[in-house]
Amino acid sequence: MKSHRVLRIISKLLIPFILLFALYVQFHGDYGPGGGFQAGVIFASAFILYGLIFGLENARKVAPPAVVTRLIAAGLLIYAGTGFAGLLGGGNFLDYGVLRADPVAGQHLGIMVIEFGVGTTVAATMITIFFLFARRDR
Amino acid sequence: MIITLIDITLLTFMGATAIAILRLRSLFAVVMLSGIYSLLAASMFVALDAVDVAFTEAAVGAGISTVLMIAVLALTGERELIPVRTPLLPLAVVTLTGAALIYATFDMPAFGDPSAPANLHVAPHYLKDSFAEVGLPNVVTSVLASYRGYDTFGEVTVIFTAGVAVMLLLGGRKGDDAGIKQEPEDKAGENNAGEDDSGDGDDRGAGGGTA
Amino acid sequence: MLQSILDHYNYWIAIFLMMAGFYIVVARGNLVKKLVGLNIFQTSVFLLYITMGKVTNGTAPILDSRFQVYSNPIPHVLILTAIVVGIATTALGLALVVRIRESYGTIEEDELDLADGET
User: Domain count of chain C?
Assistant: First the structure.
């Protein structure tokens, strides 16, 4: 799609806003609709749009597969790590109340961190899956 | 009343889209219709107060899944063959199952009934106490990440596993399974190629066993 | 009579969609179409769950002092995660389809049976 000038310019304009919106959804999920699952998918869709318009090779330079693959595991480890942090603090697995002196503040922190882990895993998985399917095309 | 009307219209559209998907043989049209179907489902979820679910369905069903399906169509061709077998047996099975399920719906609580069993058990506790216990206005996030955090942990593990499985299946180069090894792009590609060879043997074995 | 229809209309459409998806999965031979059918089946289950969580005159379960009645948040949580898991498993199914196409040159069930030397 390298010859479609309108698509190229519009997607260049749109991609920063898609990424920004994904971050908004990620960190505003506590107050409105949204959260890690949705934010991850939206974040990945920005990279997929980039890959569709500017070619797979360029997209693989922006999001190197070696890094993205490791992020899949990193997100899950962040989630599990938060669970173990609860254990170390004297609570149960995934009990965020003990992360801070005030249980409610601890809950808030824990939810923020695990939602971040969820978002990372979902976004990285979706980007990886898209790259793998698109690479088979050749 | 107006809500009921929106409900019925959206549901009827969904039914019509499903029939169109069933009848069309151009797979490209089928994939586009399935995107439309997901968007209709998302609108339906808004009408049913499930804004978080609607958000996810719109992003996943109408977005990512359509892109993936089109990527696959580019690899596999986009015409479906005319089926040679008669559809009588599947039709009979589907009609019977459907009739049994419809019969079962008469025991279901009425739509929107606040005293339905599903709405009486833990939901009132979450709605009443979650703000004091977790401090977030969005109850869906509180339940998802805190009360049912262990469940969500499992779901994220499933996504992780599916990602790894797709990598194992498609990570190697085309033609690796024929035993002709092309020069791998990088070290990761080489490792995957080894995995692919063994995976392929399993596939054929399973294919022979099921028939 | 009309009330009884309105009380169950959502369930009936969910079951209709479920059966449409089921029919595509069992009666159609093309593997991509089977996966689309499976998606329709899946969405109908989502619809069934969300329908059960709806409370008349309720609003979305985001707490605010202006509202008293909220819909049940538990089905929302279950389905929210199920959607994302659904796309991950669909991707896995599509990856299998791509590998089958590369090994056999077709994704039609009948031709796959023939290629395996069975009728």
Answer: 1
